[in-house]
Amino acid sequence: MSRAGHRSLWQFRGLALHFGGLVLVISLLSSGVLTWVSVRSIEDFVEARIDRRFPETLTNVRERVDLWYRQHEIDVQTFARRDLLVEAAGQAGSRAETERYLGYVLERFPQYAALVVLDGDGERWLGVGDTSLLPESASRLLAAEGATSVSAPVEVAGHSVQIVSAPIEGRASSTLQGVLRLDALESVLRADHAEGAPARALLDASGQLVAGTSDLVGIPIPTDKPGEPLLLDRQDGERFVASAMPFGRFDWTLAVHEPYDAAYAPVNQAVTEALGINLLVVLTAGLLAYAVGAWRARPILALAEGAERLAEGETGVVVPVSRMADEMQVLARAFNHMIGRLAENRLELETRNLELQAANEVLEQLSITDGLTKLHNHRYFQDQFLREARRAKRAEVPLSLVLIDIDDFKKLNDELGHAAGDVVLKETAAVMTVVLRETDMLARYGGEEFALLAPDTKLEGAMVLAEKIRATVAAAEFPVSRPDGTPVSITVSLGVAPFDGDTRSTFEAADRALYEAKQSGKDCVRSGGEAPA
Prior knowledge:
There is one protein chain. The protein is α+β, with helices and mostly antiparallel strands. It is 53% helix and 18% strand. The chain is built from 15 helices and 16 strands. It has helices spanning 3-11, 13-80, 83-88, 95-108, 136-145, 185-190, 260-263, 265-293, 297-311, 327-367, 378-395, 409-416, 418-435, 459-475, 503-519; strands at residues 112-118, 124-129, 149-150, 154-156, 159-167, 175-181, 199-203, 209-212, 230-233, 239-247, 252-259, 399-406, 441-446, 449-455, 492-498, 525-527. Strands 1, 2, 3, 4, 5 and 6 form a six-stranded antiparallel β-sheet that branches. A five-stranded antiparallel β-sheet has the order 8-7-11-10-9. α12 (409-416) packs across α13. Mean pLDDT is 78; it is low at 1-12.
């Protein structure tokens, strides 16, 4: 630096010191207040989020686990009502065909380790899969109950399993029992579990882990205030935020927990970042004020004003550029360039976020769509059924369920092959979709079965809609021919039931109606249940 430069700085050292000191003190005070307010706000926000998130997580997981068990009860009950099983149970000549059917079911539902048919004496008539995991004592006890039920967890050969038992309709004391892998509950507990979210666990009456992950095994979590977050200390001194809620089945407890440091990490991070950033801002402001205070106060004030507006989140901030070719001009241009780059980066980030959101929407759509028929799949149907049921209760509007089954589809598959069967499934779905209303929701429930939700529709209207579907399918032409060149035509049987306030009983009523349609010669519509008053 030249002598003139030294003389200028020395000449105005008082102004630089006073101006820099004033800016330093003001910056320290404002930064301290802002830091304290920010930390308190973040701490309150984190506590409110914990108070809201833990009960919501417990409620959602409890509903999913309960629905999971209810669905498996319905699954086994549905398997037990299949014509093939009802007609063949206990008959020696039908063992091979029944075994193929159960093998097909086991392949489609891998959460079952084995499927076993018990005759009227409680003896095993037929089984597929790892039947060694079916304990005799629990199996006979469930068979004796004569109703669809799920056993408590049983340890067999180092595996935790549960037995889902359902009576075979029309066969006295005969039952179909499915050995349910308890580790399949892991996927239910992990559903929508984001990285870093509280751990989820199912604990038995003694506090031992049934499924999920838990760092609090053996430590009782009070359930007298379900869902309320509590602070618990482990013997090693680590503290956790935990919450529990009773789970009605099997006297279990559903718990979520998170290390205290992880739960309040945003607070600690905010303190560290706020202190570091504020210290950097304060030192920078003080040094800049001292360096340029003696030279020119107005450009500094303009720059400080621009920085404050930027810190408050304002975009499009522009600092006036000095006409003099000096350091202030360079600083102002650099500041404006930084603002421009920030705006560009922000725009690019928003664009990337929109692209990511679109990709996530596509993935979400794929996860709820049946790959063959392009209809909604089983999972989406179950979720939508629950939503529509809640809406029907809340708004006191009617809701009807229609179960549809392609007649003699197995025979068609055996005769023409699975490729032709797939064509028939796709075309049947397309034919039915044409006659549906915009508010109706058709899904492929599994195999050759379809399920239709008809919101705001009473039983009479649902029967009309079902008959229209039946007639349309019966009249449709399919691009599949038999070996002799004869075009293939198919029929469907339909069971209709009005929503009676309970999704399970409504599904059972529709399933009974579908069974009645099958027994009545197929290619017809039958209703089950009564419309609520």
